[in-house]
Design brief:
The protein has 134 residues and is an all-alpha fold. The protein has two domains: 1-38; 40-134, no CATH class. The chain has helices spanning 10-36, 72-77, 80-94, 102-115, 125-132.
């Protein structure tokens, strides 16, 4: 037999409304706690604190990962450390005599990567970085 509630009493309606809000709020907190415990997706560019590579992306012959294969989608998954290494190593290998503002390039690439959608997500970040120099 279903629970029948008499909502003619104004105080009862208020109490049930408050109870419903509390139940929804507590359920959302439980859901959020569970979501925090989910492990992040494993990145191809993962490294541990004990095993930080000296050369990450460039020059490709000495690097742990081929920097020419880093796409826009990969860029969004890189840590800030990896993004700075990417720009620094690229600029030092492709343009050794150039003066550059590392932070400016990383910010520009972040803005670009966050604005791209669709097929452009597989575009090479090395090409984007080279184009941003112009």
């Amino acid at each position: 037999m279903p629970l029948m509630v008499n909502f003619q009493n104004r105080k009862m309606r208020k109490n049930y409304f408050i109870l419903a809000i509390l139940i929804i709020f507590s359920a959302s907190l439980v859901f959020a706690k569970g979501a925090e415990k989910q492990p992040a997706a494993a990145s191809v560019y993962a490294y541990s604190e004990d095993d930080i590579p000296g050369v990450c992306f460039f020059p490709v012959s000495k690097a742990r990962w081929d920097g020419t294969l880093v796409t826009v989608l990969d860029w969004t998954a890189l840590t800030d450390f990896m993004k700075f290494k990417f720009v620094d190593e690229y600029m030092k290998s492709a343009h050794p005599k150039a003066n550059f503002n590392l932070e400016k390039y990383v910010i520009t690439l972040d803005k670009y990567a966050n604005s791209v959608k669709g097929d452009d997500l597989v575009y090479s970040m090395a090409k984007v970085l080279e184009a941003s120099r112009r």
